[in-house]
Amino acid sequence: MSLPPTRRFRNGLAGLAASAVRRPALTPGELRELRPDRILLVRQQNQMGDMVCATPVFRAIRETWPSARIALVTAPVNVEVVRHNPHLDEVITYDKKAVRRPGGFLGFVRTIRNFRPDLAFVLGSVSFSVTSAFIALGSGARWVVGADSVPFGLDFSRRAFSLCLSSTPDLDRHAVDHSLAPLEEIGVTTADRSTVVVPSPKEETAADAILADLKLDPGFWAVHPGAGKAQNVWPPGRFGAIVSRAAAEGHEVLILHGPADGVVLREVRAALAPETAGAVKIAPPCPVGVGAALLGRADRLLCNDTGVMHVAGAVGVPTVALFGPTDPALWKPPTHRVVAVKSPGPLPDERGEEYGWMENIDEETVWRALAGLPGRP
């Protein structure tokens, strides 16, 4: 992998720093024989879907060391995704903006040091995070295990970690399996690959209050028309047509949306048939945990390939997920309750090769898939 001079310079400095904090070496067998009291997991990257796909890793580590207290370091956007995960005892927030301030940085370091981990894991997928590595090393853990940085063009982990796990920059299998594979190679395994998102009792209560306010009963159809990436958004007018069709057939529909979905939401509402007004409700802006609780009360969901799709897969709502440039074999949640509708190919689009795919998914195909779901018992 060829790197520009400035990055080579930074990598060289990082390598020197890594040598200064080198941890004692471990073999896979020695690692499995450890009986750590506390384990720190570091995965501070901020993609929600990637985090949900990593939850089976937490299960594998919990099953290997069932008596250890396990904490996860993650970005603010993912705190609600993992806060009530049954395989974690604690969640520590790494806020990049906050740690740039002297007080924030010292406070964060004090938090991870006070956890007093014996063992730390630097978890990754298709990238290597030097920040995550330094968080694990700075925690004071005697042993640090993490991905091999060499395939990413950085000679860091072999100088610093107790044990390097295999890594690849390419997603060559399903995202869940890709996250699990390096640990499975060293004997840290689980037979259960299902993903996990657990709303808290407080979030469940908040979801009930929203439904009561909207005069909506459980068993509604849910639609989430937005996505984190513009190229993954099915035309909002077609979402509006599907919602109108569902309402015309007697179904109540709840439209969910995120902070960045304002334009998409307006276009969906503009496309709704006038006679559907009473049957279609718009959810208020709500945190991820409350959104997960709402999905737990839905009969089915229609959404794009985005973070909400992964949350839906984790809570078990029957879902039709629309895929454009991404491959459902790699990203569709690993459950039969999620059905992928894949674009047959891109239409010409001047915005780039990742655009034009979603426009090639026709409305009738989506309706048949959504109407054909078994629904929630």
Write out key terms for the chains shown.
6-stranded parallel β-sheet, alpha/beta, 40% helix, 377 residues, elongated, single chain, 16 helices
Fraction of residues in helix:
40-55%
Along the chain, the helix and strand elements come as: HHEHEHEHHEHEHEHHEHEHEHEHEHEH
User: What would you call the shape?
Assistant: elongated
Q: What's the arrangement of strands in the largest beta sheet?
A: 3-2-1-4-5-6
Number of helices: 16
Strand count, sense and barrel status of the largest sheet are: 6 strands, parallel
Euclidean distance between termini CA atoms: 51 Å
Query: Spans of 5+ residues with little confidence (pLDDT < 50)?
Result: none
- The helix/strand class is alpha/beta
Mean pLDDT: 92
Radius of gyration: 22 Å
Strand content of the residues, in percent?
A: 5-15%
Per DSSP E runs of 2 or more residues, the count of β-strands stands at 12
Description:
With about 375 residues, the protein is an alpha/beta fold. It has helices spanning about 5-20, 30-35, 50-65, 80, 95-100, 100-115, 130-140, 155-160, 175-185, 200-215, 235-250, 260-270, 290-295, 305-315, 330, 365-370; strands spanning about 40, 70-75, 90-95, 120, 145, 165, 220-225, 255, 280, 300-305, 320-325, 340. Strands 3-2-1-4-5-6 form a six-stranded parallel β-sheet. It has a six-stranded parallel β-sheet with strand order 9-8-7-10-11-12, sandwiched between helices. Helix 3 (about 50-65) links the parallel strand 1 and strand 2. The longest helix is centred in the first third of the chain and has 17 residues, at about 50-65. About 45% of the residues are buried.
